[in-house]
Structures are given as structure tokens and as C-alpha cells.
Amino acid sequence: MVKRALCFAVLMLLSFPAARAEGNATVRVGAFNYYPGIFLDVDGKVKGFYVDALAEVGRERGIDFEYVWGTWNEGLERIKDGSVDLLTSVAYTPERERYLDYGEEPLLTVWSELYVGIDSDIRGITDFEGKRVALMKGDYNAQNFRTLVDSLRITVEILEEGSFEDVFKAIVDGRADGGVVNCTFGAGRQRQYGIRSTGVIFNPFDIFFAVAEGKNAELLSTLDGYLETWKHQQSSVYSLARQRWTYGETSLVQAIPRWVVYVAAGMLLLLGALLSFSILLRSRVRRATRELSEREAKLRSYIENDPEGIFVVDSEGRYLEANPAAQRLTGYTERELRSLSVIDLQPRSTAEEDMRYFRALKEKGSSKDEFSYRRKDGEIRRWSLEGVKLSDDRYLGFARDITDRVRADLEIKSLLEEKEILLKEVHHRIKNNMNTIRGLLQLQKDALRDSPAFSAIQDAENRVQSMIVLYDKLYCSENYRELSAKAYLESLAPGVLGTFPRRADISLVMDVQDFSLNVQYLAPLGILCNELMTNSMKHAFAGRDSGTITISASSIDGVVTVLVRDDGIGMTDPASAGFRKGFGLDLVDMLMRQLDGTLAVEVDGGTSCTLRFPVA
Fold it and tell me: Is the pTM of this model over 0.90?
């Protein structure tokens, strides 16, 4: 206890003059809901053991800490634009390092933990397949969870929330089946929300004070000094505040007044400065060694349990290390792999080509590719391999077997090719059969040229021709479900007019937008256009030497509009000029009902027929 007090006295005596010289400065702290470290209480004030600890620093160093409330993500944006000077509880990531400077002394070591409703049947991580999981936006715990489920190939639906409180509310409200927060917040709030931990914990990490890069370095150093001292004192402001906010008021009583400790420490300083420095240095070395060993053990545990194969090779491609997953992939033990090199696992037929991957890795520092490899039992399989250069003589590789996926892709490709061939053959046969029907109708029509049935046979031939044009287009198309309405109608219309003797006297004007329609719409649309054009050719130009038929089509907001107009003599009523009750009109009515559409007829210097129908 005396040694710790002595250390604290050294720090205070060295820093005290500087503190007084600075005067009262204001430090803006990005605050977010991280109970019990920092949170917004019901009275609207920011509280927590971070707040108590910073208040003590402020009293001793003449600093006013002002709290700017918001979400965690807003705090990160504010430190970037200078709206705040200090952040608490910041986990290290390479992306954040680009705009943050971290303290050297961790605030806490925490870990990610998965929570569910108190009555939930979920017991483990694999039970979350297909479930909804709430995460705090921009949170390091959220990153860890995404990495975990990806490595285990578990599919979840992610809900991003603004704070840890919102994550727990999402569970309680039933919007999420589970949620990820860190252990400190979870332990403090789970009883209040009536939820429980699943026991799934992962990715321990340290959290720090942080400031904007290149700014407030002196403030960061000051806070590191206080943390270093407080952590070695059971009765320090930091320790007592942490215990009070986490577990409630305690019975701990400071028996010795603080001023007595300071006076005693100051007296011992003159006699024990050298000893104190030595003890402090040894303590730091021991702590750094212990932390390094713990981190190395954690890293080793992650590698050993990673589902992906992990290899370490030297500059010649010789295997130095391989985790259990890598051994399962290759069929070799780690000892056997150490006697092999990269090229030994490549099939002879592709070995030289495959080695370009390793050469690219050495030149560029990273590489990613897919190629074949040979297992110990001789089976040739495929894997996806991603490599990273650690040093000139160390290269790290991550391998994932993709043989089943490659085989499935090849099978799907083969099935699609067979389907395309089959559909082409079907459309070709339908077209040929319709040509046969059309030929028979033509023969029958020639035999009945002077008969009243001649016109009916010709109408039937034109209807069949509209279907022949449709299937001819389908046969030549890569898409067997949809066709361009423009291409179809512009091929169909001249063919319909070509069956009439007066074709040369009639002009055809086409104004069709280029939009696609499903075959289920195009088939009846072709027959409808055939009927309306046939009607115009038969009746609209009686007693006239020439005329014009106009066809336009458009698709707007899911409604197709087709206009067939002639500038003929017009009709006095819809029952005249070819619209008499009969097969043609019955066919038009039937097809319009099939399309769930409408037909509007207007007579104004000719006859206009407007078709409208919705498309899905």
C-alpha cells in the first residue's frame, strides 16, 4: 500500500505545476449510452463511473468536462469534425486508427456477449440460423459478431440500432430474437430488461480513452497517468466509482484520510525515489509481458478454432505451421506438412500455372484466387485461397474448400444450357406446326376463293400468322419469357396488311415505344391488333383510293396503351363497319377480358380503337 501511494505521489508532484499553469480548460466528451460507465440518467444528467473519475481529474487539474450526448456513431462523427475532444470506451480497429490517437492505459478489458429474451428457447450460437439479431451501429462488438457468424456460415438478419439500450429494447419488443452488447453493459442492464445471456461470449478486447489524431496528446497522457495510478489503489476514485455504479453502494470505508497519505508519500519520496522508479519499471515490464502472453494465447486459441484452414509458409513456399482446419482440408498432419512445400499440393497438370498465385503474393503483398489442390489421399479438390505477406520470409494463407460449390455451379450451368436448348426446340416446333396450319388454311382458302367462307378462312390465317411471328421472335431471343413489344408489332403489322389486295394503297405508320412484355400479354395483343387492322382494311377505305393506318403503343406506370387508328370513312356506331356481332367481335371481347383491359372506340375523321390493360 505504501509503495502504491508513493507512486501516486511521484505522479502528482511531477504533474501538479503543469496542471495549475493550464488554468480552467473545457474538454468536450462524446457521451453515449454505455451503462454503467456513462449514461443519461432519468434526471437528464450524464452519469457513470467514467463521469466520476473525470470529475476528479477536473478538480485536480483545473479542467471542466462538458458532455455532448448522442449515439456511439454520432460520437465517432463528432470526433472527426472536432465537435468533441475526447471519447471513452473506444476499441482499437485499423480503420479508427486513421483518425484517432489511443491512450496507452486500457480503461477496461471487455468482451462481446449475446443476449436473448428470458423465455427464449435459444441456447447456443447455431440456434440463430435464420434469426434476427440487433447490433449497435458502428460498434466493435457488432463487427466481431458479423465475423463470427460468417466464419461459422450462419445466416442471420441484422438490425442496426443506435445504442445498446435500443438493442435490448429490440429484444423486449420482439423485433429481434437476440442482441449483442459488451459484457459490462449486459451485466448491468439484463435484469432491468428481463433478458438473459446465452452464454455465448467472444472476442475479448481492451477499450481506451481516445482523441482526434494529432490533437490533445497532453490530455491523453494525463488520463493515462491517472488510470495507471488508480488501478493500483483499491480506494481510488476510479475503483470506488466503478464498484458503486456496477454493484451499488459498498461498505468500504477509507480509514486513512487522503491528506495523511499524501503527506506520508511526500516524505518518503525523498528517501525512496530510486526504489520507486525501479519497482514501477519492473511492474510495467511484468504487466506488459503478462499481457503479451495473454494476447498470444488468445490469438493461438482463435487460430486453432478457426473453421478456415490457416497456413504459414516461408519465402520458398515451405509450410511452417498449419491449424487443425488446414490439416483436415489437406489430409496431412502438421508434421507432414512441414516436410512439404506449396507446389507439392498442386496437381501436376496445373502446378506451374497455380504457382503464379504465390509469386503474386510475394510481389504485391496480398493475393486471392481459386484453384485446384491435391489431398494426401490423391483426391483433386478446389479451394479459395487468400494470402497476406507478414515479412520477407513469412506468408499467411487462409484456405476454404469450395469443391461442393464449384460442382453445384457446373451442374446448374449444365441444366440451364439443357433448358435453353429445350425451349428453343419447343418454340421451333410450335412455329413449324403453325406454319403447317397456315399452309392448310391457304390451300383451303384457294379452294373457296369464290365462296363466302373465303373471308373467314383468311381471317383465321391472319390470326395464325400473328402467333407464327411471336414464336419466331421467341426462337431467336435469349429471353423466352419476354419480348420487345416494338420488335413484335413492327414485324406483325406489315404481314397482316400484306394479305390484302389493296396493300400498296394503304400507308402504315408505326409509333411503338421499346418496352418488354411477357408472352402471356403479347399473344392476345397480337391477335387483337390483327383483328382491328383487318377490320380497317375491310371496311374503312371503301370507295377511296388510299388511306393510312397508324399503330402506337406505350407503357406508363404499369398500364399498356395500344392505339389502332385509320383515317377512313369512319363508322356510324360500334355495331357497323365490321363490329357486327360475330366471331371477330366475340374474340375481341374474350381477349380483352383475358387481359383484364378495356377497348374504347372513337369516330372522328376515321376510327380510333384504344386498348388499355394492366401488366404485373
Answer: no
Cell numbers 489421399 label which residue? 377
What one-letter code names the amino acid at 242? R
Cell of residue 26, nine digits? 473545457
What count of other Cβ atoms lies within 10 Å of the Cβ of residue 421? Answer: 10
**Could you give the 3-state DSSP secondary structure of residue 257?**
coil
For the purposes of burial, counting CB atoms within 10 Å of the CB of 143, is it exposed (0-12), middle (13-18) or buried (19 or more)? middle
Distance of alpha carbon 550 from the chain centroid: 50
Sign of CA dihedral 11, 16, 18, 23: positive
Per DSSP, the residues of 354-389 read HHHHHHHHHHHSEEEEEEEEE-TTS-EEEEEEEEEE
31-42 per-residue burial string, b: 16 or more CB within 10 A, e: under 16: bbbbbbbbbbee
Distance CA 548, CA 144 (A): 71
Q: Give tens-digit pLDDT for 54-108.
A: 998 999 888 999 999 999 889 999 999 999 999 998 988 889 899 999 999 898 8
Contacts of residue 530, defined as CB under 8 A and 6 or more positions apart, other chains included, come to 462, 463, 465, 466, 492, 496
Return the sign of the alpha-carbon dihedral for residues 474, 476, 480, 482: negative
**What average pLDDT does the structure give for the chain?**
81
Name the β-bridge partners of 549.
508, 566
Identity at 518, one-letter amino acid code: N
**CB 564 within 8 Å of CB 609:** yes
Top pLDDT among 308 and 211 is at 211
The C-alpha cell at 204 is 475479448
pLDDT digits (tens, 9 = 90+) for 536-572: 888 888 878 889 999 999 999 999 999 999 998 876 5
Q: Check if the beta carbon of residue 468 is closer than 8 Å to that of residue 434.
A: yes
Residue pair 526/490 in contact by the 8 Å Cβ criterion: no
SS3 419: helix
The grid coordinates of residue 392 equal: 520477407
Residue 215 CA to residue 208 CA, distance in Å, equals 16
Asked if 511 contacts 550 with a C-beta cutoff of 8 angstroms, the reply is: yes
The span from the CA of 286 to the CA of 294, in Å, is 12
Contact 171, 178 (CB under 8 A): yes
Asked if 215 and 221 touch (Cβ cutoff 8 Å), the reply is no
Is 285 exposed, middle or buried, given 0-12, 13-18 or 19+ CB atoms closer than 10 A?
exposed
Identity at 341, one-letter amino acid code: S
Q: What is Dmax (Cα atoms) for the chain?
A: 135
Q: Given CA atoms 484, 486, 489, 492 in this order, what sign does their dihedral have?
A: negative
Q: What percent of the chain has pLDDT over 90?
A: 24
**Among 184, 212, 216, which Cα is nearest to 197's?**
184
Q: d(Cα 379, Cα 331) in Å, to the nearest integer? A: 10
Q: Please say if the pLDDT value at position 360 is more than 90.
A: no
